[in-house]
Amino acid sequence: MGLDVDLQTTTKARALLGKQLHKTQNLPAMDWRDVPDFYKTLCEASTLTQLALRLLILTGVRTRPLRHIHKDQVEGDLWIIPAENMKGKRDATTEFRVPLSSEALEILKQARLLSRSDFFFSASGRGPLGEGNMLQYMKRIGLETCPHGFRSSLRNWLAETTDAPYEVAETILSHTVGGKVERAYRRTDYLEQRRVYMDKWAAYVTGQS
């Protein structure tokens, strides 16, 4: 099966991005200052792969839950990732709630029109988006970074440009915060606090801030 890529956008992507000024070492992650330009190139067309990358950037989730996002997991402006799609040992993970910005909701709306199954990103109709589709797209347009690296882009943006408390910033990335006893007493996932910063991130990425 061919890769879901709009070939006409690759030249546009290279032209808009040019030579990336901000480069990280060791970790193949895009500097947060370069993300808006890349995001803009993704908006030039609406293939499922490009839509998936846009949602990945906006939400900060890992690639597995993103690829497996299903219509039954979305309730209004909330995406509830089932425990089995979260990173961690079996029976040791829980579901994770992701607040969705208006931009993210628009992406899901577009994806539903293109997808061939109840997964939002299913080009074949037989399952979710292929595991390597997003990475192959990025390589095709000449990027050395990887999809997972956008989590680092988001985390660094939070640390360098916002007043997000450590616990909130780490929870945005679904990282475990604190020891076992502390977590037992802390019964919050900071959903509304996370929503504020995710909306700000969406505004930044889309050039609205």
TrEMBL record:
Residue intervals of the Tyr recombinase domain: 25-198
GO biological process, any: DNA integration
GO molecular function, one term: DNA binding
Keyword entries, A-Z: DNA integration, DNA recombination
Recorded superkingdom: Bacteria
Transmembrane feature ranges: none
Protein name per UniProt: Tyr recombinase domain-containing protein
Organism per entry: Bartonella taylorii 8TBB
